[in-house]
């Protein structure tokens, strides 16, 4: 219902990937006939379900949401549309409403919930820039789910078939698909952004976070996906991408008020990025267990 009343949302496409909790019947009751759609798949993994659902969408911007989020923040879609339109000349193509990470520094308007097994827990810092004194926004190098919004022409044409389906098999955690997509877009010259869509998150719990075996699988896949991400451009944060995002932030945006500690955040980002700007951006395939081809075959986590 929140999506149906959100200005700028023209249709809702539900990727129903083999759920067994009565979700399909519930969606049928609330979706609008002849406008919204349910696209059914049989437990093929969210990566493939997203790609399949996107084929049925008609909008010029696709926004991918997750099933444990409630989009209760009125106005978030209108912000995305304004940003995409006003920065089209700068080739803005992807926007996260959740968070981003720059040089191991996490930025977003809400604390991101990470698996307890993660050793390097990060506190999510507020976005330090503001767009036209209206709402927080900044250019960055990667956009996280969810929501993850992308121009449909980029998703279907430049990044066809969309999310890289070789990143995970059915039953494996869907991690890194957003960062991988972002880096592929940046390589093609598109810019990335993050704003604050303050959804209610984690409704019903995170399956791959709460189960012990799934935590272990998640850590293994995280290592694999990290290698796949670095293979694209040599490293996760190529200096050229960092410099370009910084240039756009200074050119178009203002620093937020002091109550958000924005100047300190910007300085901390700069200090964090120093090592990444000075080291060569090179990927070493010899460090991958089983070799690079093993990653494309689905890795060895399953």
Describe it.
The structure is a single chain. It is built from eleven helices and eleven strands. It has 302 residues and is an alpha+beta fold. The strands form three sheets. A seven-stranded mixed sheet has the order 3-9-4-10-8-7-11. A two-stranded parallel sheet has the order 1-2. Strand 1, helix 2 and strand 2 form a beta-alpha-beta unit. The longest helix has 22 residues. It is globular.
What is the strand and helix layout of this fold?
Layout: H1 2-5, E1 13-17, H2 23-30, E2 37-41, H3 46-54, E3 61-64, H4 76-86, E4 92-96, E5 99-102, E6 105-108, E7 129-131, E8 135-140, E9 148-151, H5 152-158, H6 177-187, E10 191-195, H7 207-210, H8 212-233, H9 239-252, E11 254-255, H10 262-278, H11 292-296
Comma- or semicolon-separated keywords:
302 residues, alpha+beta, two-stranded parallel ribbon, 16% strand
The tally of beta strands, per DSSP, is: 11
Low-confidence stretches: none
Please count the helical segments: 11
Major sheet: 7 strands, mixed
The helix-and-strand class reads alpha+beta
Average pLDDT number:
87
Helix and strand run: HEHEHEHEEEEEEHHEHHHEHH
Shape: globular
Strand numbers in spatial order across the main sheet:
3-9-4-10-8-7-11
Strand content: 15-25%
Rg computed from alpha carbons, rounded to a whole number of angstroms: 19 Å
| First-residue to last-residue Cα separation | 37 Å
Percent helix: 25-40%
């Amino acid at each position: 219902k929140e999506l149906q009343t959100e200005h700028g949302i023209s249709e809702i496409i539900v990727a129903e990937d083999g759920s067994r909790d009565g979700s399909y019947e519930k969606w049928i009751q609330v979706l609008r006939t002849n406008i919204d759609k349910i696209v059914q798949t049989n437990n093929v993994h969210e990566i493939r379900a997203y790609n399949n659902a996107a084929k049925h969408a008609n909008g010029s911007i696709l926004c991918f949401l997750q099933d444990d989020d409630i989009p209760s923040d009125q106005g978030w879609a209108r912000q995305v549309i304004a940003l995409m339109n006003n920065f089209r000349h700068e080739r803005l193509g992807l926007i996260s409403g959740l968070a981003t990470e720059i040089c191991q520094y996490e930025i977003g308007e809400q604390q991101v919930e990470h698996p307890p097994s993660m050793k390097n827990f990060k506190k999510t810092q507020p976005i330090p820039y503001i767009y036209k004194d209206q709402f927080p926004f900044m250019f960055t190098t990667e956009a996280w789910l969810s929501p993850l919004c992308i121009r449909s022409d980029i998703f279907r044409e430049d990044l066809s078939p969309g999310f890289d389906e070789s990143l995970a098999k059915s039953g494996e955690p869907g991690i890194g698909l957003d960062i991988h997509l972002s880096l592929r877009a940046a390589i093609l010259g598109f810019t990335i952004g993050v704003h604050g869509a303050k959804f209610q998150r984690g409704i019903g719990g995170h399956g791959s976070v709460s189960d012990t075996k799934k935590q272990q699988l998640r850590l293994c896949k995280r290592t694999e996906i990290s290698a796949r991400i670095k293979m694209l451009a040599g490293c996760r944060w190529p200096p050229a991408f960092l410099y370009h995002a910084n240039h756009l932030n200074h050119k178009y945006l203002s620093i937020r008020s002091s109550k958000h500690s924005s100047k300190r955040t910007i300085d901390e980002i700069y200090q964090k990025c120093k090592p990444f700007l000075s080291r060569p951006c090179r990927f070493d395939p010899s460090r991958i267990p089983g070799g690079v081809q093993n990653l494309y075959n689905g890795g060895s986590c399953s």
